[in-house]
């Protein structure tokens, strides 16, 4: 999608940065979901149980919850160029381990580590916001997220065929290995080809590498409340790994993990207080003020949108295979239509937000995804396959356009904290995925889709609290001067 100001055939200046960013995120998604379309082959090769398969799906999105927080902090402090290069290089190692693992335990721990690559999304959000003005930010972030998210569809469409072409029992292993090599190679290309800001631009850094800064005591307490679901998701995951059906953690190891998570929560609270202690002694300057309520609303909406997308992308190949008795290659191709919509849906959501208003579009898109999942809950073997595919694609439009609308707002809240805010909002997407995929183990497919429809309705309720970003955002330069950044 191009506009008068975005010539997407250009590879110069800000357009070069946009293309490099979505390609980095595209590869992140390929690596992140390289197992989903190959799960049938992996399961047959290593004789995995249904419970072990569902555990791998949950593990894949679990570590992305804290990873997005951490990567957001690192991005705000050290810049996107360093952070994304290091991340793409680092995740190639667990990718290779997963590819050549011979037992469920090896697959599980390497899959957990691979969840870190999903945090790359946060880096690109900050990078794009540095290069594009506010009136182009919705479509630019939408193109970045949408074309990058298409990596899961590309994996679903290409990896099963690649594995079969490579042939033999190790076909799936070589296919996954290739994705790791691509990630490693692009990390060097990213380092060589990008810069954090346009020439002469100022990169506003976070003041510390700890907790997220907020502006009022009320916001401080709301931030602490918003941390609870993050840790609940990790506690839920620990419980799942310790059940008899999975048995990846012994009861004693699970107890130790619970204690560690609670200790990390305690440190997180202390770190957040340390970053915001001046709230309890001094008045916050006007140029440092922002409404954390805005972030909280976006968190809930991203839980309902991106959380459901991750869950559906993970289970849809199996859903189509079981519902319509398709072979795994065809099921992967059919399921890829859901993620395929990212090419236009997420940029479309950003463009619509730029043009017609961000809050208005979020409202309309959230209504659409609630209705879409409710209709998907009625899909069964009696449906014509083509009608099921059309329904899936229509639903995915509202889901992914909603994601684009959410992240048309995130960079307009507080520039120097964009990485951390994007990290927290992105983490809520993964909390949603862990929640949905965990519930899937005890729900029918119909109930699973209705659950996601219900959480979209909850998002509509919280949306009433969102305030449309307008006017200017204020930031402090390194010399102490206050800079006005136009956002409307």
Question: In short, what is this structure?
Answer:
This protein has 488 residues and is an all-alpha fold. It contains 18 helices and two strands. Strands 1-2 form a two-stranded antiparallel ribbon.
Layout: helices, strands, pairs:
Elements (H helix, E strand, L loop, with lengths): L12 H20 L6 H8 L3 H13 L1 H15 L1 H20 L4 H11 L5 H12 L2 H33 L4 H23 L23 H26 L8 H26 L15 H33 L3 H13 L1 H15 L1 H19 L8 H22 L11 H23 L4 H19 L8 E5 L5 E5 L2
Antiparallel strand pairs: 1-2
Helix pairs in contact: 1-7, 1-8, 1-9, 3-6, 3-10, 3-17, 4-5, 4-7, 4-17, 5-6, 5-7, 5-9, 7-8, 7-17, 8-9, 8-13, 8-14, 8-16, 10-11, 10-17, 12-13, 12-16, 12-17, 12-18, 13-16, 14-15, 14-16, 15-16, 15-18
Derived structural class: mainly alpha
Quick check: average pLDDT? 87
E-strand count? 2
Would you identify the regions where 5 or more consecutive residues have pLDDT less than 50? none
Query: What is the CATH homology-level superfamily?
Result: MFS general substrate transporter like domains
Order of helices and strands: HHHHHHHHHHHHHHHHHHEE
Percent of residues in helical segments? over 70%
* CATH class category label: Mainly Alpha
Name some characteristics of this structure.
two-stranded antiparallel ribbon; 18 helices; mainly alpha; Growth Hormone, Chain: A; 488 residues
Question: What would your notes on this structure say?
Answer:
- By secondary structure, the chain is mostly helical.
- The protein has one domain: Growth Hormone, Chain: A (Up-down Bundle), CATH 1.20.1250.
- The protein has 18 helices and 2 strands.
- It has a two-stranded antiparallel sheet with strand order 1-2.
- It is globular and about 60 Å long.
């Amino acid at each position: 999608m191009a506009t008068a100001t975005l010539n997407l055939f250009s590879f110069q200046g800000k357009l070069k940065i946009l293309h490099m960013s979505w390609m980095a995120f595209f590869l992140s998604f390929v690596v992140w979901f390289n197992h989903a379309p190959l799960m049938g082959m992996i399961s047959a090769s290593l004789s995995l149980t249904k419970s072990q398969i569902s555990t791998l799906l949950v593990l894949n999105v679990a570590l992305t919850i804290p990873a997005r927080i951490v990567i957001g902090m690192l991005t705000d402090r050290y810049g996107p160029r360093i952070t994304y290069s290091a991340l793409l290089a680092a995740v190639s190692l667990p990718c290779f381990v997963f590819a050549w693992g011979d037992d469920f335990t090896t697959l599980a721990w390497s899959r957990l580590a691979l969840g870190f690559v999903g945090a790359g999304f946060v880096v690109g959000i900050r990078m794009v916001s540095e290069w594009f003005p506010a009136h182009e930010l919705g479509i630019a972030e939408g193109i970045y997220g949408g074309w990058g998210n298409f990596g899961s569809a590309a994996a679903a469409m290409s990896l099963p065929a690649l594995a079969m072409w490579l042939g033999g029992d190790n076909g799936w292993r070589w296919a996954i290995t290739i994705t790791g090599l691509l990630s490693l190679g692009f990390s060097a290309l990213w380092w060589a080809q990008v810069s954090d800001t346009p020439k002469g631009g100022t990169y506003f850094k976070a003041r510390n590498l700890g907790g997220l800064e907020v502006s009022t005591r009320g916001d401080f307490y709301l931030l602490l409340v918003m941390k609870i679901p993050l840790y609940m998701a990790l506690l839920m995951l620990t419980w799942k790994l310790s059940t008899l059906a999975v048995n990846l953690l012994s009861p004693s190891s699970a107890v130790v993990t619970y204690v560690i998570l609670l200790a990390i929560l305690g440190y997180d609270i202390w770190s957040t207080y340390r970053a915001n202690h001046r709230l309890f002694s001094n008045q916050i300057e006007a140029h440092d003020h922002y409404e954390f309520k805005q972030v909280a609303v976006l968190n809930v909406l991203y839980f309902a949108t991106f959380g459901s997308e991750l869950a559906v992308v993970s289970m849809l190949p199996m859903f189509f295979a079981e519902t319509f008795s398709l072979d795994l290659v065809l099921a992967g191709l059919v399921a890829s239509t859901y993620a395929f919509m990212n090419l236009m849906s997420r940029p479309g959501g950003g463009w619509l937000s730029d043009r017609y208003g961000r809050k208005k579009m979020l409202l309309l898109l959230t209504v659409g995804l609630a209705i879409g999942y409710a209709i998907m809950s009625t899909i069964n073997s009696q449906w014509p396959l083509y009608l099921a595919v059309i329904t899936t694609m229509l639903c995915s439009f509202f889901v992914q356009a909603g994601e684009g609308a959410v992240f048309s707002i995130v960079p307009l809240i507080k520039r120097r904290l964009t990485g951390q805010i994007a990290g927290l909002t992105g983490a809520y997407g993964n909390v949603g995925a862990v929640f949905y995929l965990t519930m899937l183990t005890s729900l029918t497919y119909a109930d699973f889709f209705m659950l996601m429809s219900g959480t979209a309705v909850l998002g509509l309720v919280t949306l009433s609290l969102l305030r449309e970003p307008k006017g200017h955002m204020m930031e402090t330069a390194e010399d102490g001067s206050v800079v006005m950044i136009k956002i409307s």
